[in-house]
Amino acid sequence: MKIIIVGAGEVGFHIARRLSEEGHDVSLIDKDPKQIKRVAENLDVHALLGSGTSPRALNDAGINDADMMVAATDSDETNLMVCLMIKTLNQYLLKVARVRNEEYFQEGELFSKDLLGIDHVINPQSEMVNTIQSIMEIPGASEVIDFVEGRVKLIGFFVTEDSPFVGRKLLSFNELKGRVLVGAIVRGDQVLIPHGEDVILAGDLVYVVTRNTELSETLEFLDIKQKASRRVIIVGGGQTGAALAKKMDRAKISVKIIEKESAKCAELSEILEHVIVINGDGTDKRLLEEENIGDVDFLVAVTGDEANNILMSLLAKGLGAKKTVTRVSKLSYIPLMSTIGIDTVVSPRLSAVRAILQHIRPGKIISVAPLKGELAEAIEAEALETSDIVNVPLSKVRIPKGAIIGAIIRDDEIIIPRGDSVIRPKDHLIIFALQEVASKLEKLLTVKLEYF
Fold first, then answer.
1. Do 17 and 96 share a domain, yes or no?
2. Domain RCK C-terminal spans what residues (predicted)?
3. 227 falls in which pLDDT band (50, 70, 90)?
4. In the chain, N or C terminus with fewer CB closer than 10 Å?
């Protein structure tokens, strides 16, 4: 595919890198010379200095014969304007726009195809709030991702030194057969798509996929705590903090929100009914102690300053907070967080990358969830009648090394697959894959050569 990306910030840069590594023809436009220099020095893409709203820059990028455009700048208005410009230059192009301001979503007609011609709108703030809410539902997990409208859950958890699983081969877990599948193991900087002979070690981050209906039994077996959050402190009253506080408010969870700016505190007090709004600095140890931080189930640090978010989370853990969720924007920081004691990381940019990837992949990709930053992915896809993966036992399917099918969803049935399982057309699949085999997996999920 020929893809044009407007905006070479964190989101645009990482999407361009992923697509380039997968063999796509990528052009990246940005008006900042420093960003373009960074792209030119690190990526095998066509980097252009210019504005994404400039017809000349878009034509230089090859807009007339492009298949897709992703507007991923940090400005909602620029992204919307880019889509409007491209509507007149290439009406057949698939357009994806990153939009963060919630006000735009209140105007339903704004995103109609007739007006701006946008095919998919990505709201990273909303994605991130949903992620935090899912994590709060299972406090013992480090990551929770829903598939098939929550009917299948992907749970990531760290294996402690005293865990009964340490030193055991996966094939020894007879109790889990047909109920749970281990889809990925993160060990340091390495991601493993495991097989039966692989052994679990202390410190591993293990991802398992299970049915939502068997969640309690699975969590009990894995010794993962499932307990409703009763007390939450949110630090940061921006869009993300306010949206999360609203959700917690409706769920009648005891929530306090700490915000530095007094004017913003006044706004929050008006829109939040039961949430206690505190005007203060979340990095102030005395303030956290006064608010009994040692008794909270979650401290959620979602200010716009990622260094402060990290500091607040470490401080809260040191003062006894049971769990922390930390907003980190710089994607290169994410793999390092667990090594310094950060429980769970959320990122608006990673949420945007996750949402955009599903619209770029060929075949019927429904959602894509990067694991451990971007080293591997959990993919929800629909099995096409024309693909090589259907109507034969899985043991005879040439699934690329570095990929594994974690679940098959057929109507109301959720199957944890075995070698003799057969995928049928229109089944939904949950697939774990290393990033380097993504292109091979795409070929498997698309069209048989003989179909033509």
1. yes
2. 142-224, 366-447
3. low
4. C
CATH number, position 444? 3.30.70.1450
Average pLDDT over residues 241-250: 89
Does the residue 163 lie in any domain? yes
Q: Which of 196, 222, 248 is the last residue of a domain?
A: 222
Residue 296, token pair as written in the block: 């909270």
Please check the confidence at residue 363 and state whether its pLDDT lies above 90: no
Overall number of domains in the chain: 4
327 in the same domain as 279: yes
Is pLDDT above 90 for 261?
yes
The CATH number that applies at residue 60 is 3.40.50.720
| Structure token pair of residue 46 | 């066509």
Domain boundary among 287, 317, 346: 346
Tell me what percent of the residues of the chain surpass a pLDDT of 90.
31
Q: Give pLDDT, residue 373.
A: 57
Most confident by average pLDDT, 257-261, 372-376, 404-408: 257-261
pLDDT single digits (tens) 1-52: 899 999 998 889 988 988 887 788 999 999 999 999 999 999 999 999 999 9
Q: Is the pLDDT of residue 249 over 90?
A: no
- Domain coverage including residue 117: 2-122
